[in-house]
DNA sequence: GACCGAACATAACCTATGTTATGTCGCAGT
DNA sequence: ACTGCGACATAACATAGGTTATGTTCGGTC
């Protein structure tokens, strides 16, 4: 298997031709290591690259005037970070590493070349953007219409499910390297209440808390709490491939 | 000017070549009229088309188990509805008209043809998807980290700003045909509280309430309340066009 | 091995917002 | 003209979740 992040990423979905691989390979830059808690970009900076996550976790967020923070999304191995900023010259949010992380940079304005050169990759990029939207919508629903308990359970399940699918070098998909502060900021609640809720779930043996994050003990139980349905995470790659007449990946999706 | 919704939509951004126009024209179907309060599609239905809004308003939403509703987004003239579903075989949300509406259907799986045929359109579609994401993220922040007052003010400003940009046959961009129920469902709050908040803003002469919707009276005042910054709505079309070497639209963006 | 700062825990108290209930108004249909 | 319904208004009351405060634990560092 290739060493390139982004090739690896796409081969997860579909079998790439030699052309596609070469194209991607020529554009991707060498991976960069970031340590935990490092600010990778800041609102207002020029948005010239996006990244593929090779290992580790990152999050995008925005600082509010009152000093609080809203985390917009978390990124796990295999995710593409910063596609959103395709439409903007400057970054509209901050990006921070959650753990030690390796990212592969890709120049934003070369995306255009990819679009015109590879029908397959163009469509896959679009599919990914659509799935990203679906994730945002689901979080919207989480924030708007669920209780703290439901929010937390739902969010944990989503991240675990995304880890499952990432299927990269992740060992234990039930373990999430999240601090309670981060969780609270992602779910629009206070740290104190995040703690309360998490401990509640712990009492019920649904989760476990360690110094290095949160562990899911009982996914079915959590599912009952949250009403979680992973449908929105499962993009219809096969349908797309069939539509554009491309061979599917040999790997299971 | 053309009669096609989608051509009109894109010409708003950039000058289309004759090829592009013909391509779009061949794919778009004849406009369809819907009356106020009509359910256009439902969760679970096959997602075979997306729509361009020619006139009127629509909203996408999801019904929750407890009977409540979360509105995901509103669509105004010029918007494209349903691009999100590109990644999914079935619709992941419901679509409802807010007013009488005219929509132009476009078969989803022909998008692929557009991508491979027109470099310009492909990039514009991607830009639109990215802007849609930015809108969702901003709503996320709204729900997560703002008070009811701020939420309402921010949301009203966003919609007004989007109307400004739509620049289609909209007469008064300060008038939004929203019911209080809809507003509440979009902002994840109760109708009662939406009413309270709206009346508060009305006391301060920031908005006016009529039987047919909400009117913005003092955008600057609302801006002060909400801390609204329209940056996330203003996609960098020029940068994109320059990057792909296409001529800009003669019309002001 | 003393010090420091994250992250976590817990309690007491407070408030923004939800809930329930009831009433008015205007308008569409009969 | 009567009825019914949907949108809006408002008041009384309930509560989920925020805020403030204080303490513990633990890993890093000089």
Description:
- The structure is a homodimer of 253-residue chains.
- Chain A is an alpha+beta fold and 253 residues long.
- Chain A has a single domain, classed as Jelly Rolls (Sandwich), CATH 2.60.120.
- Chain A has 9 helices and 11 strands.
- In chain A, the strands form 3 sheets. The first copy, chain A, has a 4-stranded antiparallel β-sheet with strand order 1-8-3-6, covered by helices on one side. The first copy, chain A, has a 4-stranded antiparallel β-sheet with strand order 2-7-4-5. A 3-stranded antiparallel β-sheet of chain A has the order 9-11-10.
- In chain A, a hairpin with a 5-residue loop joins strand 4 and strand 5.
- In chain A, helix 3 packs across helix 4, helix 4 runs antiparallel to helix 9 and helix 5 packs across helix 7.
- The longest helix of chain A is centred in the middle third of the chain and has 27 residues.
- Chains A and B meet through strand 5, helix 3, helix 4 and helix 9 of A and strand 5, helix 3, helix 4 and helix 9 of B.
- Chain A binds a DNA duplex (30 and 30 nucleotides) through helix 7.
Summarize the entry for a quick read:
Chain A is α+β, with helices and mostly antiparallel strands. The first copy, chain A, has nine helices and eleven strands.
